[in-house]
Write a structure and sequence with these properties.
The protein is α/β, with parallel strands linked by helices. The chain contains twelve helices and ten strands. Strands 1-2-3-4-5-6-7-8 form an eight-stranded parallel barrel, surrounded by four helices. Strands 9-10 form a two-stranded antiparallel ribbon. Helix 4 (about 105-115) links the parallel strand 4 and strand 5. Helix 11 (about 240-255) packs across helix 12 (about 270-290).
């Protein structure tokens, strides 16, 4: 299934900044991220929620149009801050609203109603799947027409599970895969978990490779240094493009002569591998057009 044709279906990098830090927010357009998030949730302490939503409402229009899509992450539906976040913290200039900890369909009904009351009925929803229930029901949740994109939140998921985060992330591989699979079946682009060790570029680069291999379209970033790594990592490399070009040329010649499988550089190639090569070339073409 193809991704729904929204404006947020090609987010390789989504950079977060605390809503209580106007100095950080002002610099977001300079960071080169495909999308940026003014965060009224985890990055904002409970006693500063009002200040956060006021900053989001005031500053989002100022940075919109600066080269990055602008989002606001509100607090979960279950909190006492949700309603005022929607009515007082959002604006027309946003590319979407980030709804964290989505794990019940009635929460999508709640945000749909709240957005309508706020005069923003068509604002796209980028959903956070980051609880045990959310992962278990991810396919149903992401298939809902109000969801335009989603991310997997490993830290909240493991906290909900009562588990332990490890360097290799094996403890979240199942959940991570489930969210990517649910997004694929729903036609919704998905973004991968944060790397909290933001000075560890090697770890971030490794996770980008893993995420792309799982089918994610992009990655959440909590530090500007992570943006360039994500942007590059979710594009086909020059070697991938070259290999795909040569593979397809050989496969097409063979297909024209009636062969359905060929030996290409010691590898058996049939239609599934040819389809993957076409995807690589299509992604490279989109990247070239956007430059």
């Amino acid at each position: 299934m193809e991704a729904r044709g929204t404006s947020i279906d090609r987010l390789r990098s989504l950079l977060f900044a605390p809503a209580v830090r106007p100095d950080f927010i002002a610099k977001l357009p300079e960071r080169g991220a495909d999308g940026v998030v003014i965060d009224c949730e985890d990055a904002t302490p409970p006693n500063a929620k009002a200040e956060a939503r006021e900053n989001a409402r005031r500053l989002a229009p100022e940075i919109a149009g600066g080269g990055s899509l602008v989002f606001v992450r509100i607090n979960p539906v279950s909190t006492g801050w949700f309603e005022e976040d929607v009515t007082l913290g959002l604006c027309q200039e946003l590319a979407g609203v980030v709804l964290p900890k989505l794990d019940r369909l009635e929460q999508l009904v709640a945000i749909e109603d709240a957005l309508s009351r706020a005069g923003l009925p068509d604002l796209p929803v980028l959903a956070g799947i980051e609880t045990a229930l959310g992962v278990a029901d991810a396919r149903e949740l992401l298939a809902h027409p109000r969801v335009s994109a989603a991310y997997f939140g490993a830290e909240d998921f493991i906290a909900d599970m009562g588990g332990v985060r490890t360097e290799g992330s094996q403890e979240v591989l199942y959940a991570r895969s489930q969210v990517a699979l649910a997004g694929r079946l729903a036609g919704v682009p998905t973004l991968d978990q944060v790397v909290v060790d933001f000075r560890n570029d090697d770890a971030f680069e490794r996770e980008v490779r893993e995420a792309r291999a799982l089918g994610y379209r992009g990655k959440l970033c909590i530090h500007p240094a992570q943006v360039a790594i994500a942007n590059a990592g979710f594009l086909p490399s020059a070697d991938e493009v070259d290999h795909a070009t040569r593979l397809l040329a050989a496969y097409d010649r063979a297909s024209a002569s009636g062969l359905a499988a060929i030996d290409f550089e010691g590898q058996m190639v049939d239609e599934p591998l040819a389809a993957r090569a076409r995807q690589i070339l299509a992604a490279a073409a989109v990247a070239e057009e956007s430059r």
